[in-house]
Structures are given as C-alpha cells and as structure tokens.
Amino acid sequence: MLRCLKNPIVVTVEINMNLVALTVIGLISRLWGLSYPRAVVFDEVYYGQFVSLYMKRIFFVDDSGPPFGHMLLALGGYLGGFDGNFLWNRIGAEYSMNVPVWSLRLLPALAGALCVPLAYQILIELQFSHCAALGAALLILLENSLITQSRFMLLESILIFFILLAVLSYLKFYNLQRDSFFSGSWWFWLLLTGVACSCAVGVKYMGLFTYMLLLTIAGVHFWHMIGDRNLSNVSLMCHFLARGLALVIIPVAMYLSFFYVHLTFLYRSGPHDQIMTSAFQASLEGGLARITQGQPLEVAYGSQITLRNVLGKPVQCWLHSHTNTYPIRYENGRGSSHQQQVTCYPFKDVNNWWIVKDPGTQQLVVSNPPRPVRHGHIVQLVHGITTRYLNTHDVAAPLSPHSQEVSCYIDYNISMPAQNLWRVEIVNRESDTDVWKTILSEVRFVHVNTSAVLKASGFFGASLPEWGYRQLEVVGEKLSKGYHQSMVWNVEEHRYGKSQEQKEREVELHSPTQMDISKNLSFMAKFTELQWKILTLKNEDTEHKYSSSALDWITMDTNIAYWLHPTSGAQIHLLGNVVTWASANVAALVYTCLSLWYLIRRRRKIYDIPEDAWQLWVSAGGICVGGWAVNYLPFFLMEKTLFLYHYLPALTFQILLIPIVLQHLGNHLCRSLLLKSMFSALVVAWFSSVYLVYRTFSPVTYGEPSLSVTELKDLRWKDSWNILIQKQ
C-alpha cells in the first residue's frame, strides 16, 4: 500500500479541441435568445396542445407518428414546471407567464446544437480528414434552416439528432470490428445504434427510412463476413445473434416501451376518445368509464344495450331509431316501405337503447340465472322506447339503392311480413361457443332471411335529408360485397332488463347501471389498437398556404413564414442557406457522375484511384447519398400535406457529402501544386460566401433585429419566396 503512495497517480485525458469548440459554438447558435419570440411560432400551436395534454394526463392520438417526440417536448415542459394551462389556438399568440418558453424549446435546441459535433465525428469515422470533418460541422452550424427548426418546440431537430447518432454509432461499431470483436466498446456502439434507431422511429416515422438504410448496410457487411474463412461457424452465428439483438429486438422493445409510458401517463379521458373502441374508452378514467363502470359483462336474453359502430370515423355513432317513418316516396321518385326509420346517431340518446330478445319467448327481461347469448345464436332486437323490432327486407335503402333498407317493423296489414331475425356473429371470437360480451366483443348481425349484414353506410356518403334529421344511414349489405369495419358493432352501455311493463322499462332505460364488473384491456391490446389508429387515421388534408411539393425543396423554391411581430415587422422564416443548398445539389451530381465514370473505367480494368480510396468513396456514398435518397424519395409516394421542413433530414445527409466530394477532388483530381493551391483558394472563397449568406439571412432566422421594408424586399432572392411586408 505504501509503495503505491511513492508514485503519483497520473490520469491522461485526450481532448479534441475541435470537437469542444464546435459543441460550444453549436450551443451558442441554438440557445442564444431561445425565449424570443415569446409567442406561439408556427407548429408550436400543434405540438403545444399535446404537451398540455401530457401535463394534464389526458389521452390523445396524433396521426403524425409515435409518442416519443411528444414525450420529450413534454419533458421540457415538466422540467420548467408547466401546468398545461394555455390555449394553443393561434399562431402568434403571446405566451402567458405560466408557460416556460425557454424550457419547452430547450430539448429541440440541444438536439440541434449536438448535430454539429456529430457531423464532425461522422466524417472522422468515415476516414476523412479533420479538415473535411470540420467543414461538414461548420456547414451544419451555418445552415439557417436547421437553426430555425431547432430553436422552437418542433421535432425535426430531435429526429435529425437521433438519425446522426445512429449513423455515428454504427460507424464506430464497424470500425471497432476490425480489431476487437465483442469488446465492451464494440457492444456499446452496437447497442447504441439500435437505441438511436428506435428513438428516431419513435420521434417520427421518417426515422424508419434511416433505420432501414442502416439495417441494409449492416446486412451487406455481414454478408461480407460470411465469406471470411477465418471466422468459424460459431463466431458467425454469434455475430448474427448480436446484430439481431441490438438492431432488431432492442429497437422493437424500446418502441413498445414508448407506447407503454405514453399509455401509463395518459390515463384520463379526453377529446380523442371517440375514435377509439368502446373497450379502450372504458379503460380510461372519466368519460365513458364513468358510464360503463359496473356493467354486466355477458349479454343475455333480455339485456338492454346500446350498439356502437366499431369504425368510429369520421364520427362515432350508435344504432338508433325514432318514431318517424321513411317517406312514402323519396325525392328521386323511388318508393320506401314507410316503416320506422333506423339510423346511426352520433350522440348518446335514450333512443339508442335496444333489447336483446329470444325469438322463442315474449319475455323482455333477463331470467334468473341469465341465459347468455353466444356466437351463432338467433336474436331479435327490440327498440327500447317504441318496442318495434329491427327489420330488413328487399326494399332499396334511401341513399344506397343497391343495399337493403333497415327499419323497425310496423304492421300495416299488407303483404310485407316481418323479417326480424338476426344471427349474432362474434368477429373477434376465440371459439365458436364464445359468449357475447359487453364492450369486448365485436359482433356482426346477419339477417336470417336475406343474409344481409347490418351496416352503417353513412360513413361513405351524405347524411339522410331533413326527414331523417341528417343522421347517418343504416343498411343491410350483402356479405358478397366484402367485409368492412362499418359492419361491426359492439355493446357499449348494458344493463340487465328487469321491467316487463313498457312504462317501467322507459324509466329503467333512463337510469344508470349498478352492477360491478371490470373490463380492463391489456397493454398489448391497447397498443395494437392505438398503433392501428395512428397508421390509418387520416385528417382532412387541406391546402395550406405554405405547403409545397417535394420537387420545390431541392432548389428551395418555397419558404415558410413562422412568425411575424404584430408591430415592428420582425419575422422568422424557414429559409435555408442558398449557397449550401446549391452546393449540396452540385455535390450529389458530381458524386453520381464520378461514381458512374469510375465504375465504367473499372469495368475496363482501368483504376483511376487506389483501391482504398475507392472503398472510402463507396462507403461514404452509401451513407450520404443513401441517407439523402431514403429520406427524400419516399415523399413522392405520400398523399399528405408536405412542407419544406420535411426535407431537412435528407438535406443533412446531402450537406455531409459536400466536404467528402471536395476532399476527393482535391486529393485525386488536382494533381499539380498549382491546381491544389487554386482549388484551396476557391474552397475558401466558397466557404466565405456560405458565411456571408448565413449572416445576411440571420435576421429572419433569429427574428431580430427587425428589418425595414427595403431590407426585407432585398431578402426576396426568389419570386416564389413569401417575405411578409407589412403595410405602413
């Protein structure tokens, strides 16, 4: 012990000052004046609503993607002590004092700042020079659009951060693979790759594109490993399992964990409940749960029920009837049965109640013990208030003449007998003896006489006219026309009927249920339903003033006005650095042309550059050009409203390509000292222009200082840019 004290303890630390300086400058550029403007900026009006709902633990569904990005924004609000009380209804609205603006914008700003050193490290790991890496980092640092997007409560900077982190982690893992298999650092970077990929996908589904790119690259690298005869079969299997664990299993597990946390936090009923199934709604505190708590689980003969259509969009609705009848003749001259109307009504109402009756008895109450209805049983559905039977027959529906009219039967003593028998088919049954269950069972009612299925068709057309009170049409649809969720119903409210007399039964239908049976959903059931809603839910896409097409992005023929000061004329725009965007396009074109040239020449056994330079060129292109392609080209296939900020992940990869191409040109095409000197001078002049453009557009990047009308007009370098000029 004393011998150890004779010699000093020495700790050697290597610090890359380039990396430190870039990180500090990146933080300054993104965090400076972060609370300005203290007003709602563009899509903060959208994401802020979700932050408020998180603070209040209220459930919501966002069809734009998974919940991880929203949770990170909500974390900023939590750290700042935000209580969620702010009305996010207008861009430009001043924030009240209870809104911690700096804290809410902090995480996106940090993510944007850290993209600068990440860009530097990616080029180092790609085996390019420190000078090229420094150039890539500075281009990210001085890109006006990336600065703007990272300084507000938006998700793109967080997405780009996780994308770059995933790329860097994989490159570090791959480079370590040459020397140290299965070492601690090897495992760390491999696992971090999977974690970063899952986080990218969890922020926005756009992250899936880069994840698939890295999986493809990993697959190619493993394919090359298979050809290495120095590796045993056992070693190859271990490599395969390690990659499967880190790049597939862990990302899937993390993705599920995002939803688990999301659903755990958001346990209260909210404004988005109606698009979820009754079972999901009943699992939330308040709302439907207050109504359905304590209902009987098993539907029995004599049960009083309300039937909700499972489709639930564009609005939820319940099977409904009222005393009014179909008109004898419709506006187009077609005749009807003049029977009692049956509709799908989008509001809770006493006329939504039906009684499940056994066709073999006249009893409308539940026996003791109750006789449960099972899959395949024949029932009659009696309207609770009017006591008329649900019926369909070979008469054309009012709005869907190729489908059958559904009505509540009125006996007019004419040759039109009642056809009111329905077979209960439980769609999500586990066996053919399953019992029809409240909320949990999704059922289809098949008409015994005609084999038509009870369907809410109003989702696909207009509502009924004035005579139908604008309610949604219900029809009998032939099974031969295919299956659709609008044919499926579930029991939402349920009680065991006790009153045989109609007057007593009407009082009973207005009273709440009393029995106590829980119907909690498992996490996987809730996850599956929520995931499906996110993927299939489509908001009405309306043309936005600042929407654009993917073709507009490459040449930046569009911009987005994010904020305008009401009096001074100060404003913030999503506008990129024109020199950087043009240079990125040129770099991509040069890379493509040079690669084709090299490939043709190599086919002819002519090798213009050394093999190691060729491999470096190909691997860099796989990351940068591949990253640009997978993050850009899919937008041509998307049917959604697009904005310029959707291009930023692809642009980031394209920017990384610029110093790669410049270094390649300087090393392999400028062979003489004179050419190298001239090329270096051109690069310095070009980079000076990048900085000059950055400074020129800084006022509309940071929102200050405010510019005069003349200065604003001078910034309109393209006629397609919408620079806001206030009238004096």
TrEMBL record:
Q: Which residues cross the membrane?
A: 9-32, 68-88, 100-120, 154-174, 186-219, 240-261, 578-600, 612-630, 642-662, 674-694
Leader sequence range is: none
Which Gene3D superfamilies did the record assign? 2.80.10.50
To which pathway does this protein belong? Protein modification; protein glycosylation
- The protein's superkingdom reads Eukaryota
| Catalytic activity, EC | 2.4.1.109
Which Pfam families is this protein grouped with?
MIR, PMT, PMT_4TMC
For membrane topology, the record states: Multi-pass membrane protein
Q: What class of enzyme is it?
A: transferase
Q: Where in the cell is it found?
A: Endoplasmic reticulum membrane
KW Zinc-finger (keyword) present: no
Q: Return the SUPFAM superfamilies for the record.
A: MIR domain (SSF82109)
The MIR domain covers 296-359, 370-427
Q: Which UniProt keywords apply?
A: Endoplasmic reticulum, Glycosyltransferase, Membrane, Repeat, Transferase, Transmembrane, Transmembrane helix
Q: What is catalyzed by this enzyme?
A: a di-trans,poly-cis-dolichyl beta-D-mannosyl phosphate + L-threonyl-[protein] = 3-O-(alpha-D-mannosyl)-L-threonyl-[protein] + a di-trans,poly-cis-dolichyl phosphate + H(+); a di-trans,poly-cis-dolichyl beta-D-mannosyl phosphate + L-seryl-[protein] = 3-O-(alpha-D-mannosyl)-L-seryl-[protein] + a di-trans,poly-cis-dolichyl phosphate + H(+)
Q: Name one GO molecular function term.
A: dolichyl-phosphate-mannose-protein mannosyltransferase activity
Give the CC-aspect GO terms: endoplasmic reticulum membrane
> PANTHER family in the record, alphabetically?
DOLICHYL-PHOSPHATE-MANNOSE--PROTEIN MANNOSYLTRANSFERASE, PROTEIN O-MANNOSYL-TRANSFERASE 1
The similarity comment for this entry is: Belongs to the glycosyltransferase 39 family.
Protein name stated in the entry: Protein O-mannosyl-transferase 1
